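Hey Z.,

So I finally got round to the adenosine-5'-triphosphate thing we talked about over coffee. Here's the setup:
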Amino acid sequence: MPEIYVATTLYNARRTQSDRLSESEIRILYNTFMATQEETFKKLVAHCKEYGFVFPSSEIYDGLGAVYDYGQNGVEIKNNIKKYWWDAMTMLHENIVGIDASIFMHPTTWKASGHVDAFNDPLIDNKDSKKRYRADVLIEDQLAKYDEKIEKEVAKARKRFGESFDEDMFKQTNERVKANVEKRNALHERFAAALNDSNLEELKQIILDEEIVCPISGTRNWTDVRQFNLMFSTEMGSTADGAMKIYLRPETAQGIFVNYLNVQKTGRMKIPFGIAQIGKAFRNEIVARQFVFRMREFEQMEMQFFVRPGEEMKWFEYWKEFRLKWHKALGMGDENYRYHDHDKLAHYANAATDIEFQMPFGFKEVEGIHSRTDFDLSQHAQYSGKKIEYFDPELNKSYTPYVIETSIGVDRMFLSVMCGAYKEEVLEGGDTRVVLNLPAVLAPVKACVMPLVKKDGLPEKAREIMDMLKYDFHTNYDEKDSIGKRYRRQDAIGTPFCITVDHDTLNDNCVTIRHRDTMAQERVKIEDLHTILSKACNMRETFKKLK
Ligand code: ATP
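And the result:
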């Protein structure tokens, strides 16, 4: 049995039956599970390349750090994700419209938005390994270590006390746990204060006081913490004309804010209303790793929802809930999502939360929901000298609208879907298969049509079926190798249905349809294929879950 299954099963056993396992068993299982998760992630990255999902950018020149290209299957998933988001926003909400703004914007935009002065990450280098880190991430990892220690003690006690175990009481009374909780909370408080004050000396002092070592060199030989601006810049116009320094946008949101008046007026939009946009964003990330999780060029799907001042918290709650529903409707397992409220609010926000997905490297942000107050519109009004307001006929007064933003990275969404979908399965008889249990609505190919043999009129019949389906569904045709091998190829790219045409098909107009996840096969009429595929692959059914 592959290691992944051993570890997953045992890890689950740990969670549900920890009272029956000893502490050392739990530790071994947990470590095995984590190591296996890392291994699985590596395999997923390799799989993405082997099956045409994601390639390193300009690979023939050895690639470019944290820049990736999507291949023939990856681009289909990405397009499906974008469509799922775009339609959920603009079709299901009559008060949301879309735009497509340019990547280049007038440079004052970024002065007004605060990005020129404040779009920084605190970086620190280890002098021995010469490796660069984000100081805040090193401290967050340290916090996670305390959490892990506390969790271990709790698991041990749960095992000892069985049914009568009271976790809260235990945390309040056990001296070792109490000490760790106190240390953790003190660190958390100090960290949040340092971040909020942008106090770089204090961040370094925390790293020293916590005795955080470089994972590569194992030493505490750190440089000072410095701010690093994440925006890429370039020049527009020839130098003779006096070239202008412009930026590659680090977020798509500002393209929406500077078009607020245009859209509100031309669309006769009434508050509350939203503007949605999908597009590229660029950030010169200090530490770019974990595949497409943190890229230097990536794509965002952002929506700014303009509301009456004072009503922003109501809408913040609405969007928090709606966005989580949108994720969960894909059926990747509700337990894989959670909210994470921000410790440090951005300079413009009065509330912020992330939706996190359980990746093999832990729960990680996929989407942010922010209450941005009237900061952006007010700033643009001030810097441009234009009045950017809304006249509210119900209140009979003008005001600068408040904004709730939902911001999700297409690439992170892609990664979460791939991580959730990638499975290595052991089949009866000991055979194994790699399958992507992708939500059918996101799968790059919905059905593959296969003639059993390459003769006797079966290929022609298969092509006929493909012609019937191709106007509504992305279909593949495959006549090479055994049916078993063809199934495996489709499993590996997550195709929900394989349709086999055999000799009986020519007489009874029926085909064998094989379901990816269960591998169950059934005989169906050709005329029913369209309905079967529609039910599973059209977004309609998924959208209904968003009500
Ligand atoms: P992080 O804390 O992970 O750097 P962030 O809080 O800076 O992310 P936001 O500015 O809120 O991210 O951006 C909104 C969304 O854009 C994120 O939730 C994420 O999905 C995506 N995103 C941000 N930076 C990147 C990146 N470098 N690569 C891929 N996606 C990104």
